[in-house]
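During the reporting period the student researcher (J.K.) took over the structure-prediction task from the postdoctoral fellow and processed the backlog of single-chain submissions. One of the processed entries is reproduced below for the supervisory committee.
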Amino acid sequence: MSDVKNRPVQVEHRRLASLLRERRITYLIGGALTAAIYYGIVALALSFFGNTAPYLLLVVASHLATVVIVYPWYRLVVFPETLESWLAGYLRLYVVGLSFLTASLVGLPILVELANIPILIAQGVIICTSLPLSYTINQKWTFRNRQNT
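J.K. obtained the following structure tokens:
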């Protein structure tokens, strides 16, 4: 009788494990975590510093902190087959992140100053328009398996 009760749990556990082996799912989860952590840090920084610090400086600092926090997820869960050192992978992830940071540093003043869109909403617009390239760049360059190249 206990086997019958545990079977649905075992099936659900296998489904979850199967989903977590699907790279696009783990990358999507990582993206959601990254966005949530980033927005949280930016929101805290904006509320703490208010108008005493330039919002673009807070965006740069938040970006750096976010990459440090989320890198282990991408390294261990999304791209676990990566064989290179953690530092090399981190530096490549940060280089890719710099392109998105640049998009923020250019796009935010346009959206915030000219279009009067709140900073966090403007940042969300920039991230959503940048996402299609992120997975491909990270898969093909940041976490590529050099043994296959």
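The committee noted the following: The chain has a mean pLDDT of 81.
J.K. will present the remaining backlog at the next meeting.
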